[in-house]
Amino acid sequence: MSEEYRDRAAIVDVAVAYATALDTRDWTLLGSVFAEDASWAYSGSGEQVRGRDAILARLSAGMGHYDATHHLNGNHVVVVHGDEAEHTCYFQAQHVRRGLPGGENLLAGGRYEDRLRRTPDGWRITHREVTKVWSEGNPAVSSS
């Protein structure tokens, strides 16, 4: 296998680890996908978080009110430029909160746009932008 394909596979593995970490609430795994100086943004909201610890705090707090989530990624596009890379993929994310009037589910779809850096420990996200394209279900599922 060429180095290019190994890099591409490793970068897709980072994206999959992000989804797995959210769904399993594995904050150690989630921390391992981000560079220490990373940033995370939710497109359209103006929200941007800087630094791995702040990203972990934001995402763990945001996931805290769900009873379950299930994130699926697909349509990965990876472009490697030496020790830097760009990655995009689509996501579908199911969010569940039991016992809500109006429905217990919210399904959202969108894309992740990433910049990554090769480190001695492997590829790490330096910036992730989350763009929600559509949703269906009860919006109250995502309310605090």
TrEMBL record:
Q: In what residue span(s) does the SnoaL-like domain sit?
A: 4-128
The record, for Pfam families, names: SnoaL_4
Which SUPFAM superfamilies did the record assign? NTF2-like (SSF54427)
Q: Which Gene3D superfamilies match?
A: 3.10.450.50
Q: What domain of life does the native source organism fall in?
A: Bacteria
Which CDD domains does the UniProt record give? Answer: NTF2_like
Name recorded for this polypeptide: SnoaL-like domain-containing protein
What organism does the record attribute this protein to?
Actinacidiphila rubida
